[in-house]
Amino acid sequence: MVVLIAGLGLLGLCYGANWASPAKVFAALSGSGGGSSVVIRDWRLPRVLAAVIFGLALGVAGAIFQNITRNPLGSPDVIGLDAGAYTGALVAITVLSGSPGQLAVSSVVGGVVTAAAVYLLSLGGGLSGLRLVVIGIAVNAMLTAFNSWIVLRAELEVAIAAVGWNAGSLSGVGWDGLRIPFAVIAVLLVALALRAQALHQYSLGSAMAVTTGVGLEPLRLQLVLIGVGCTATVTAVAGPIAFIALAAPQIGRRLAAAPGVPLLPAALTGAVLLLAADLVAQMLLAPVALPVGVVSTAIGGCYLIWLLTKEVRRA
């Protein structure tokens, strides 16, 4: 996966309106590339790094929620967290001025409120992974309808901006808009690394986790906050990018031949998927670049059909 990330990243730095050879890319990164340095370092490099870091964050978020629910459908985009973060962002765009800070805060608040609602609604009769997923799907449907209503009620210019942002895109990302999101994701990943052992104990079963000294409720709360933080941070910058969080953990698990949903394979797979989807989005209708969310949705839709078919046969 690391080799794939490096190869796709190099291809992303080479590809553009004008093709740059790998030699030019390395020269630009070293500061001796001449006129092409600005294009490669200031335009293409932020996009490639955003795809890697955001893919890592989405893969980790998916692994967290699939471990908590013990269900391959338990990802942020399926149980409504993406839709909740988008609701918060819509409020910032339509009610407030829509500044980057307002988008970030509103997205996180929307995701946290949605996660709390899904969690509380799932507590009746005991917390169940399947129950949480089903309730999350229902909440996701309601939030999607509510988001559509907000867009329809907004002014034309605001509605066009909101719909375009909803597609999920890495176009136009620059260093100024990535420093804070990268820092937030780094802090969240460090916090997750500190709780990774407890998470893997929890994935073996609640009873096993309790006997080894894991406090279930504090652990669930911490993991949910980390997962929501990763999802909402990506959503605030690039919009909701669907299905990466759903597919990456299960693909990573199968590649690693692991019994549970390990974090590192999920993170690396998420980076590979988002990098590949962004490259396809740029190449498919070149010179017009599609939003990466369109490509990730197409890939994820095929994966979801395969996953549901497999689950039905197993049942």
TrEMBL record:
Origin: domain of life: Bacteria
Biological process, per Gene Ontology: siderophore-iron import into cell
GO terms under cellular component: plasma membrane
Keywords: Cell membrane, Membrane, Transmembrane, Transmembrane helix, Transport
Chief subcellular location: membrane
Compartments, as annotated in UniProt: Cell membrane
Transmembrane segments annotated in the record for this chain: 46-66, 78-97, 103-123, 130-152, 182-203, 223-248, 255-276, 288-309
Molecular function terms from GO: transmembrane transporter activity
Membrane-topology annotation of the record: Multi-pass membrane protein
InterPro entries per UniProt: ABC_BtuC-like, ABC_transptr_permease_BtuC
Entry's family note: Belongs to the binding-protein-dependent transport system permease family. FecCD subfamily.
Protein name: Iron ABC transporter permease
Organism of origin: Amycolatopsis albispora
Lineage: Bacteria, Bacillati, Actinomycetota, Actinomycetes, Pseudonocardiales
